[in-house]
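Protocol step 4 of 6: structure prediction from sequence.
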Amino acid sequence: MHHRPRFPRWAWLGAGLIAAGWFLAWHDGPLPPEWRRHAFTPLWLGYVLAINGLAHRRSGWSLLTHRSRLLAALFPASAAFWWLFEYLNQFTRNWHYASIQETGDWDYFLQATLPFSTVLPAVASTWAWLGQYPRLDAMTLPALGGHDKAAMVALPVGMSALAGVAIWPEALFPMLWIAPLLVLWALQELLLGETVLTPLKHGDWRPLLLPALGALICGMFWELWNFGSLAKWQYSIPYVQRFLVFEMPLLGYAGYLPFGVECALVVDLVARCVERRAALPLAPR
């Protein structure tokens, strides 16, 4: 009789970090404000441990236990990756941070970089967990060829869109999420000849759909845990600033889908640098 692996002890530690971090982030009293503002990082470290525990319990495999070098490398890569979006947000002003106290630019950089470093590990771990469900892992659609020609179009379009964000931020704010995806994918396709999205040529859409869904799941938790936190972000998005789900306008959640694909492209680049191989398959099949 086949026995499913147990939920590992380190995953229980993650669940404990989530519970403690959530409580401390949302409640006055247990911690002084200067400590409470930092609850987001241990909360998301707990998530990374717990979601890897769910993957391990399902198949005996997880990024943490079987591709630990990649997972570790994703933390510094994630910090650099998210700072790019912070830079682009200087033009669009789609979000801002509240109840942040810092003594200068360097202090703010240190406070922000730690939570930023958890973004890619969380999305990649969720992606790997989703890939262990047969119905999700069997998602196929018609083949999508012509990647090389599409890349030659996507690169100038993406670069033009990035420039447009600086010039017409209110009209082109969605390009903050789409333009980096076009540029990153096109550069990888033209320089390497393959990307994490290459399986689309054969009708295998899992490398696109699974990380997009993984980012959306993480996005729901990001917005939930942000809602009651002392240090938090708030949105001001043109045309769609209504029907809020937590702090995020309902239509704003659509941005997590291309963001997840961007995360997948970066995870693949990190895997090629750290492990000398592509990220796929991210989970055993």
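Step 5 (inspection) to follow. The two ends are 21 Å apart (CA to CA).
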